[in-house]
Amino acid sequence: MQANSNIEPRLQTGCAQPYVAIAIQVTLKEWNKGNTLANEVKEWLQGKEAKIAGPLFYRYYVMGDAEKPFHIEVGFPVSAFIEGDSRVITGHVPDGSFATLIHCGHPDQLEQTFEVLDAWAKEQHLKWKKSDGKKDVWAGRFEFFMNVDEPDMNNWRTAIAVLIDG
Question: Any stretches that span the bilayer, and where are they (predicted)?
Answer without folding.
Answer: none
